[in-house]
Specification:
CATH superfamily of the largest domain: von Willebrand factor, type A domain
CATH architecture of the largest domain: 3-Layer(aba) Sandwich
Distance between the termini: 41 Å
CATH class of the largest domain: Alpha Beta
Order of helices and strands: HHEEHEEHEEHHEHEHEEHEHE
Number of strands: 12
CATH topology of the largest domain: Rossmann fold
C-alpha cells in the first residue's frame, strides 16, 4: 500500500509528532511519577482512563532495557558514565536458550557450575527503541478490546521505561500496512503524548507482518537510523510463516527483537457449547461447528501447538519470546515475566 494511502487504523491520527523535550537539560525526566499518574488517570476522553497508577509508574522508573547485542558506537545518556571499558555495563544473568548469541555465555560460571547462563547488559547505544503494535482486527475480540487494550498498556509501560533510560522511542501501529509512528524524545515528559497517541488507535484490517517488517527495515535505512531494540506486541494470529520470515528480516537488519505474544483466555480455551457460528476476524469467512468436548479438546491442543511454534520461531531467529496472557496483571508481565526473560532489569 502506498505511503500516502488512508490509514488502516480507524481513528489513527496521521500527524507527524515533533521531538518535543522538556525544558532544561535533555537528560531531565520532565515529569514525575505522581504527575504522570495524574495525567494518565485524569485524561478521560483523550487517553485511556486509569491507564496506570502512581505505584506502578514508580516501579517502572527503576527498570532499564537490557541488551543482548554489543553496542557498535559510543553510548549516550545518563547511563554512559557508568559504562565498563567495552561500553557495556553488566546487569544480570538469565538461562541460555537456543538461538542466543554464544558470545555472551558466561564460560567461567559454566566451568564452576556446569550451567549455561547468558550475560545481560544495560543498553548503551545511540539506537532508538522501536515498538511495533499489532492493530489488526483480530486484536479486538474478547470484551471491550481486551487484547488491544492490554497490548497498548504494555506498549506505554515499555515506552516509559525506555524514555526513563534516555532512549528515543518510536511506536509503530501495524496491520495490513505500517502506520505513521509516534516519535518521542529522550525523557519521560512525553508519556502524556504516548497515551494520547495510543488512545487514538483502533484494531482494524488484516495482518501483513512480513510487509510491515520490510517497510520498517526500509524506514531504518531511509532515515539513517541504527537498528536497536524492537518490541513486537501482538496476537500473532494469521501470521503463519510470516512470523519466521519477519524475524529473519529484522535480525539481518541488526535489530534486537523481543516478541510479546498477547492472547486472551478465550483464545487459548474458548468457552463454547452446542452449535456455534465462527466468524473470521480478519477475513470474509465463517465456519459452523458443534462445540463438543472432542472438538474443544482438539482446539486446545492446536492452540498449544501454535503457541509452541511461535516460541520456537522466535528462538530460532535469536528473538526473545514472552507470553502475555491478558488475564495476568500487567504488573506481572512487566515487573516479573519480562525481567525473567532478560528484557528488563534494574
Amino acid at each position: 500500500m502506498p505511503s500516502n494511502s488512508p490509514s488502516a487504523f480507524s481513528g489513527t491520527s496521521r500527524r507527524r509528532w515533533p521531538d518535543r523535550r522538556s525544558s532544561g537539560a535533555e537528560g531531565g525526566f520532565g515529569v514525575s511519577a505522581a504527575r504522570a499518574a495524574r495525567y494518565a488517570q485524569g485524561m478521560v476522553g483523550r487517553t485511556l482512563h486509569g491507564f496506570f497508577d502512581e505505584q506502578f509508574l514508580r516501579c517502572l522508573e527503576r527498570l532499564h532495557l537490557l541488551a543482548k547485542r554489543l553496542a557498535a558506537r559510543a553510548p549516550v545518556g545518563a547511563r554512559a558514565s557508568r559504562r565498563l571499558g567495552d561500553g557495556l555495563e553488566f546487569a544480570d544473568h538469565r538461562d541460555y536458550a537456543p538461538g542466543d548469541d554464544i558470545r555472551f555465555l558466561d564460560w567461567p560460571y559454566y566451568a564452576r557450575m556446569e550451567k549455561l547462563l547468558l550475560r545481560l547488559f544495560h543498553q548503551h547505544s545511540e539506537a532508538d527503541v522501536s515498538i511495533l503494535l499489532d492493530c489488526s482486527a483480530s486484536m479486538a475480540p474478547g470484551g471491550a478490546g481486551e487484547k488491544f487494550d492490554y497490548a497498548r498498556r504494555a506498549a506505554a509501560a515499555l515506552a516509559y521505561v525506555a524514555m526513563g533510560g534516555l532512549e528515543r522511542v518510536w511506536i509503530f501501529p501495524f496491520s495490513n500496512t505500517l502506520g505513521e509512528p509516534l516519535r518521542t524524545g529522550r525523557n519521560r515528559g512525553q508519556i502524556v503524548e504516548v497515551l494520547e497517541f495510543l488512545s487514538t488507535l483502533r484494531p482494524s484490517g488484516r495482518t501483513a507482518l512480513r510487509a510491515c517488517a520490510d517497510r520498517f527495515v526500509g524506514a531504518l535505512s531511509g532515515e539513517a537510523r541504527r537498528p536497536g531494540p524492537v518490541l513486537l506486541l501482538g496476537d500473532l494470529l494469521d501470521c503463519g510463516d510470516e512470523l519466521s520470515d519477519s524475524l529473519s528480516r529484522l535480525q539481518l537488519a541488526g535489530c534486537d527483537v523481543t516478541v510479546l505474544h498477547v492472547f486472551s483466555p478465550h483464545d487459548a480455551d474458548p468457552r463454547l457449547a452446542g452449535p456455534v457460528l465462527l466468524r473470521h476476524a480478519e477475513q470474509d469467512a465463517q465456519l459452523s461447528i458443534q462445540a463438543t468436548k472432542d472438538v474443544l479438546n482438539a482446539y486446545r491442543a492446536a492452540w498449544k501447538a501454535f503457541a509452541t511454534t511461535c516460541e520456537h520461531a522466535c528462538l530460532a531467529r535469536g528473538a526473545t519470546y514472552v507470553a502475555a496472557p491478558t488475564d495476568a496483571p500487567l504488573e506481572q508481565l512487566i515487573l516479573h515475566a519480562m525481567r525473567r526473560a532478560g528484557v528488563l532489569g534494574e
